[in-house]
Amino acid sequence: MERQALDGKSTTEYRTLDNCQCSQCVNQDTKQRNVDTFQLKEEDLKVVDFKETEDKLHVNWSDGHESQHPLSYLYCWFKGAYAKEFGKDQ
């Protein structure tokens, strides 16, 4: 479910972290990103653990950050617009 970018890093991990909407990652007033994920070191992009709840995917990163993603969003992400990128278009 991941694809390697030109630099060898997983685009799935980048997209997952880049789409985190928590207040640490996104200014809640302006909706602008607080973090440039492409400036992160490779070791900051390691998924340590994850769990699925009724409506969200919780991802724990090696830098201590936890991102939360609505399952409905992820479903659309992989079944819809980004499906071709991941070779899953049907």
From TrEMBL:
Keywords of this entry: Iron, Metal-binding
Protein name: Gamma-butyrobetaine hydroxylase-like N-terminal domain-containing protein
Species, as recorded: Fusarium oxysporum (strain Fo5176) (Fusarium vascular wilt)
Domain named Gamma-butyrobetaine hydroxylase-like N-terminal: residues: 18-75
Pfam family, one: GBBH-like_N
Source taxon at top rank: Eukaryota
Lineage: Eukaryota, Fungi, Dikarya, Ascomycota, Pezizomycotina
Alphabetized GO MF terms: metal ion binding
